[in-house]
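Rotation project, supervised by the postdoc (A.L.). Task for the rotation student: set up a whole-complex structure prediction and record inputs and outputs verbatim in this book. Inputs entered:
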Amino acid sequence: MKFSQLFSKTLKNAPAEEVAVNAQLLIRAGFISKVMAGVYEYMPLGLRVLNNINNIIREEMNAVGGQELSMSVFQDKETWSTSGRWESAKEVMYQFKDTNGKEYGLGFTHEEPLAAAARHFISSYKDLPKAVYQIQTKFRNEARAKSGLLRGREFLMKDLYSFHTDQKDCDEYYEKVAEAYVRIFERTGLKAIRTFASGGLFSKFSDEFQVVADIGEDIIYINEKENRAVNKEINTGEVLKDLNWKEEELVEKPAIEVGNIFKLGTKFSEPLGLTYTDATGQNMPVVMASYGIGPGRVMGTVVEVSHDDKGIIWPENVAPFKVHLISLGVNADDVYENLKTQGVEVLYDDREDKSAGEKFADADLMGIPWRLVVSGKMGPDEIEIKKRTEAKPQIIKRSELAGML
RNA sequence: CGGGCUGUAGUGUAACGGUAGCACGAGUCCAUGGGGUGGAUUUAGUCCGAGUUCAAAUCUCGGCAGCCCGACCA
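Outputs recorded:
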């Protein structure tokens, strides 16, 4: 990609209304654009990052047997009424009527629609277990959207749903997914701590994945020895007792919830009539679990925990490009073409009317992992290389470049 | 949803109730060419609606919007 062709531009100042670091830097660098409170649009650079995150999630979901599908965002009242959630979800679900007076809602989660769809395909114990997921836009009537990408009214969610014959099978799969979650966050460059939280319907806890950050809305008590934590909630004392954790050994930190997984038991399968016939011919309700990650929130969290005073520092796995190539005064087209030929994703700052300082400042702001500079100050077979995380560049032979990246 | 604060060019920021100004950006031209380079010139704004006043960006009321704190948060 040539910088001169980029759809977005960088800004020297962030809009005054943005307080969160993730929103300030992502807007300044041209990755996202704000529409209204809690609603952001992803510009080409931002979408590249988001897609990288999504692809990591896909790989890990596929690896635990998840099959990707796409449910409708547009949902009907009947399905939601069956579980009793049409009324209770009113505060968070966008619900509206069409011109005929028929009522609809926009999806903020998909337990009911998924259970309803699964009735067509699950009828025997031979059909189980199954797991499906989607990466899809969700809507949520947030009373108070805030913190840039961290709490929005429209946001992307990866939601996985698993279906099992019994709780034991569900529990085993749940652990496999929890391990996949650890890998997902590691790969995106986040240190996520598996955290005990309330909200578990069919086990004592649900599990949250929390990343320590000052902007986080949650307070967690971290047990560093076990690399686990407990969310600070009304019943924290009891939980600690159950776990046999000593309060004085725990570290209290604010954290961002980047993932949350739940054992649902038969809460949705029973009202929706999702049953299977077991080996003895008995009709049994399917046992379910659901597993969420917000890729946009992951992106915002990465920026929160990985930046300096000059800009973003993308981990290589999620960076929009691997290399930020800068030409100063001379033409660097040949280097650009070579890198592309080698399959290296490169953003080439080919702008002729920009000063060196401006190009460097933009490179720091955008946070691409490797910076290459070509200028008249070095030999024709030389190139300057610097990592975003390092202060000092070095000059190398161009022939050595492939081995460095 | 309760409380508070704030709405001025694309962005940032000034203006006692009395001429809406500056910087960045963008356009044109010249110079420059390794950390947001220098100069000339052009462009573009008081959230919406009422009210008070000779006069409103400024005061009052209403609406809308944004942010912060709290409540809420599969």
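Student's summary: The first helix of chain A runs from residue 21 to 28.
Supervisor addendum: The two ends of chain A are 18 Å apart (CA to CA).
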